[in-house]
């Protein structure tokens, strides 16, 4: 049994190998919480990454890092940097909190009006909360010094919200931080980078696309993650099958089981036959990806 972050939708190679392995694979990022709502095992890492994103963006706006040479909070007589956060989830709450705290001019875009109301109440006018349309993304991205991609679709690859053309029209020396890179990235020009070499430049825009950003603050991240994963790990260690069948929230974390893809979003994204996990013990394994693709 594998119990970990998997992010399979944008990773066909890993999915194929896990299918072939016959392992039972439970993904942290799709375990749900029917009482409180949300994704309890995913939340600690976006909390860390969201707070890091604002700091990383501020750092790379410095001229020595290839940025515009802008101080995030400005100084008396000089306007603060304009920060755009796309997505109002966990990252989209923690990133603005840090940016607002540093004195930036912050805008949050999201497609959920109830969530925008929530954020508007939380920030009390210190951040704009705007409905996300294609036009709004373009308008605020072109004005921004720093754009933080904070989009998440549980178990699926994220859409490309900043096109290559839009990136090319942004301010020279602006910074984009793609926190969604583990789900494939939400900018068309994104590619995963490392902590050792965190950035690259496209059309004079600095791209920070570090996969597993929380790894840089490993102690904080480990303790935060253990707080929420340990109870589930204990259940799985005691009785794997019983724990999954007894807890619908934990069962939602099951992505691959004995050669079958049992999480619908992953199956649709990668062209596998979806198998309902409650009936997975009575069906034949999913054919390999290449067989499905060859058969159309």
- Helix content estimate: 25-40%
State the CATH superfamily name of the largest domain.
NAD(P)-binding Rossmann-like Domain
CATH architecture of the largest domain: 3-Layer(aba) Sandwich
Structural class comes to: alpha/beta
**SSE order, one letter for each helix or strand:** EHEHEHEHEHEHEEEHHHEEHH
Rg calculated over all Cα atoms: 20 Å
What topology, given as strand order, has the largest sheet? Answer: 5-4-3-6-7-9-8
Briefly note the CATH topology name of the largest domain.
Rossmann fold
CATH class of the largest domain: Alpha Beta
Number of helices: 11
Q: Please give the domain count.
A: 2
- Overall pLDDT confidence: 91
Strand content: 15-25%
Strand count, sense and barrel status of the largest sheet are: 7 strands, mixed
Q: Can you tell me about this structure?
A:
With 296 residues, this protein is of the alpha/beta class. It folds into 2 domains: 2-41 and 229-294, Rossmann fold (3-Layer(aba) Sandwich), CATH 3.40.50.720; 44-216, NAD(P)-binding Rossmann-like Domain (Rossmann fold). Helix content is 37%, strand content 15%. It has 11 helices and 11 strands. It has helices spanning 12-21, 44-60, 91-101, 113-123, 134-143, 164-169, 218-238, 240-246, 248-251, 264-270, 289-294, and strands spanning 2-4, 24-27, 82-86, 105-110, 127-131, 146-149, 175-178, 199-202, 205-208, 254-257, 260-261. The protein has a 7-stranded mixed sheet, sandwiched between helices. The protein has a 4-stranded mixed sheet with strand order 1-2-10-11. Helix 6 (164-169) links the parallel strand 6 (146-149) and strand 7. The longest helix is centred in the C-terminal third of the chain and has 21 residues, at 218-238. Residues 282-296 have low confidence and may be disordered.
